[in-house]
Specification:
The complex is a heterodimer of chains A (288) and B (287). By secondary structure, chain A is α/β, with parallel strands linked by helices. Chain A is built from 11 helices and 10 strands. Chain B is an alpha/beta fold. Chain B contains 12 helices and 10 strands. Chain B has helices at residues 48-55, 77-86, 103-113, 118-131, 136-139, 148-160, 178-195, 206-212, 230-234, 237-242, 249-259, 270-286, and strands spanning 5-14, 22-32, 37-42, 63-68, 71-72, 87-90, 166-170, 198-202, 215-220, 223-228. In chain B, the strands form 2 sheets. Chain B has a 6-stranded mixed β-sheet with strand order 6-7-8-3-9-10, with helices on both faces. In chain B, a hairpin with a 2-residue loop joins strand 4 (63-68) and strand 5. The chains are: A alpha/beta (288), B alpha/beta (287). The complex binds adenosine-5'-triphosphate (2 copies) and magnesium ion (MG) (2 copies). One adenosine-5'-triphosphate sits between chains B (14-15, 20, 22, 24, 42, 44-50, 92) and A (144, 147, 176).
């Protein structure tokens, strides 16, 4: 096992304006991300998710402690390009990430800035578009694509840089249900087939349920960390942090308040349906 | 009673006469009553935001009419200006709406434009900020130094401070955490009741619109494809999936239960699901 990202005693405050004190987001934050894993990061608004993510590719630098990416200190100026090559970022608004008028030029933008030969860029662009299922759109105008398609182009732009890790900061917030599914399926496939490490920041619990590991942030610290089943069955804890479990678990939790006694770890619709089926079919007096 | 808002045969074409010409709305007609809570769903690019921007006069129809209280908002300059205040629009991307130096000034912008007195503006700013969960300290910071979810709250506060009769929210909960989502949605519902305001909420969350709205408009490829209660709309799940949409998660669980042979009616919210299952369990217990 090896960790691709290691956050060690991270402290970070945004600088204050004029003589006002800055906002302390982290004082002693610790987190390790295993290479090849798929980690979802949850947390209330303003808890520091985006701030943390920006430390993963040196957009922000620690005020204290350190952040290591593939063994490199993100604060080491000489390693800046190497860090950015290893960790790519996708943000919430697909429109803001489009830089060119033709899809393939847009995807080529990142690698061009890395100073890669044009033959190699060609190969990477074709490959990246294929991986997100958008190769047929290579010659299209990106601004005329749907939100889910734009977001897949943004992901292709990152893949073309061949990073070891992709960090997505609420990539599906503006997408319709199909677009959301497309983006999540795409990152899951990259994780499974290419071994790319995925860090997914999201407010959608059903998306987090698809990760291998769920990390919950609260007030600059890790408040829960485990498999989706482990984390989402702690419904009360989640509620107390302003979060929720997937709808399937919330349903079971509500039913338990009404005299059912259901386990809270059936995240998928089908397993939830099976659980409910058994509960109403086999339930007989004495059971409650 | 006359509808507060009537949309008649609305067409809108972007960038007419250029290579980017795009007809974003085709012959859209519907009306909205005071106090009604309307949800608008549709795939990305279906024309939802374009439609919303027509309703307060931000975009001018290529053809067709928008009537506010029975009067065409484009028939006279005064009416167009009034529409901006009476129909409040919270943009999909709050960044497009925030531009002042402090959160306070941002929220005050609308009321100030309406020509209200300073103490009335102050009252409205503080009420609106409190309602969306912003602290007094946050009123003094720059909106650009806030997190994504905090910016959205400022944008919503800025519009409700104008106390509009029709409140339009384009994806108001995108980027909000679950508690924030519940809080804002609860507030919107409260605003509707206390002001007898009509609410139009664009959303990609089938769960949210199922729980809150009494009527759904479905946009598909620039056209109004469905107009009905959530039950009527979500009963057409195959068509919705085809359009890139979906049905609420509990509805899918119940479809599975039905396939497994349980005799259940469709449900759209957790509340309905709990009631239905309680009944079934009660029935089984009698056996
Ligand atoms: N540029 C900035 N200057 C000053 N403070 C900031 C800045 N950006 C964020 N903050 C503050 O830092 C804290 C953490 O913000 P961050 O954006 O990391 O939150 P988040 O967890 O990503 O929230 P959200 O879910 O709303 O996106 C918040 O209190 C926020 O107000
Ligand atoms: N200025 C413009 N010029 C040409 N076409 C445009 C322009 N603005 C928007 N469009 C197109 O009009 C269509 C409708 O856009 P609109 O923003 O109304 O969609 P939407 O339903 O709100 O989508 P989303 O769910 O992504 O917010 C889209 O195909 C969009 O690309
Ligand atoms: Mg954020
Ligand atoms: Mg829109």
């Amino acid at each position: 096992m090896s960790e691709i990202i290691s956050v060690e005693h991270l402290a970070y405050s945004y600088p204050g304006v004029d003589d006002t004190p800055g906002v302390a987001v982290f004082e002693d934050m610790n987190l390790k991300v295993e290479e090849g894993s798929f980690v979802a990061v949850l947390g209330g608004n303003g808890c520091g998710k985006s701030t943390l993510a920006k430390h993963f590719n040196s957009i922000l630098l620690p005020c204290g402690g350190r952040v290591m990416v593939c063994g490199m200190d993100t604060a080491d100026e000489e390693r800046l390009i190497a860090v950015r090559r290893n960790v790519g970022m996708v943000f919430q608004n697909p429109d803001n990430q489009i830089v060119a008028n033709v899809v393939e030029e847009d995807v080529a933008f990142g690698p061009e800035n890395l100073g890669i030969s044009s033959a190699e860029i060609r190969r990477r662009v074709d490959n990246a578009l294929r991986q997100v299922g958008m190769n047929e759109f290579a010659q299209h105008a990106p601004h005329l694509l749907s939100g889910g398609q734009k977001q897949r182009i943004a992901i292709a732009g990152i893949i073309a840089m061949e990073p070891k890790c992709i960090v997505l900061d609420e990539p599906t917030a503006m997408l319709d249900p199909r677009g959301r599914r497309e983006v999540i399926d795409t990152v899951m496939k990259l994780n499974r087939e290419k071994g790319i490490t995925v860090v997914l920041i999201t407010h959608h619990m059903d998306e987090a349920a698809k990760a291998q590991r769920v990390v919950v942030l609260h007030e600059g610290k890790v408040a829960a960390d485990g498999t989706p089943k482990e984390v989402f069955s702690q419904v009360e804890l989640l509620h107390s942090l302003g979060l929720a479990a997937p709808e399937t678990v919330e349903l079971c939790w509500e039913l338990n308040k009404q005299g059912f006694s259901l386990p809270l770890d059936r995240l998928g619709e089908e397993e939830c349906a099976r659980l409910l089926y058994d509960a109403v079919k086999t339930q007989c007096p004495g059971g409650n | 009673m006359e509808p507060i808002l009537q949309v008649q045969n609305l067409n809108y074409i972007y960038s007419q006469g250029t290579p980017f010409e795009h007809q974003a709305l085709m012959d859209v007609s519907f009306s909205v009553r005071r106090g009604e809570f309307l949800g608008i769903i549709g795939h990305t690019g279906s024309g939802k935001s374009t439609l919303m921007q027509q309703l307060n006069g931000l975009l001018k129809p290529t053809s067709g009419k928008i009537l506010l209280d029975g009067k065409d908002i484009w028939s006279d300059k005064k009416l167009t200006r009034q529409a901006r205040f009476r129909v409040g629009l919270v943009f999909q991307y709050p960044e497009y709406q925030l531009f002042e130096e402090t959160v306070y000034r941002d929220i005050a912008f609308g009321p100030r434009n309406m020509g209200l007195k300073e103490d009335e503006i102050d009252r409205r700013v503080r009420d609106a900020a409190r309602a969306v969960g912003l602290t007094d300290a946050q009123l003094q910071v720059s909106p650009f130094d806030l997190s994504g979810g905090q910016k959205r709250r400022v944008a919503i506060a800025g519009v409700i401070a104008m106390e509009p009769e029709v409140l339009i929210l384009d994806e108001p909960t995108a980027g909000l955490d679950p508690a924030g989502r519940a809080e804002i949605l609860g507030y919107i519902e409260h605003y509707r009741k206390t002001h007898n305001a009509a609410i139009l909420m664009v959303s990609h969350s089938m769960d949210d619109v199922a729980r809150l709205t009494e009527r759904l408009l479905v946009m598909n490829g620039s056209k109004l494809a469905m107009d009905g209660t959530p039950a009527e709309v979500f009963a057409r799940s195959d068509e919705l999936l085809e359009m890139g949409l979906n049905i609420p998660e509990v509805t899918r669980v119940f479809l599975d239960l039905k396939k497994m042979g349980l005799d259940v009616e469709p449900v759209y919210t957790i509340g309905q699901a709990v009631e239905a299952l309680k009944k079934l369990k009660g029935g089984a217990a009698v056996c």
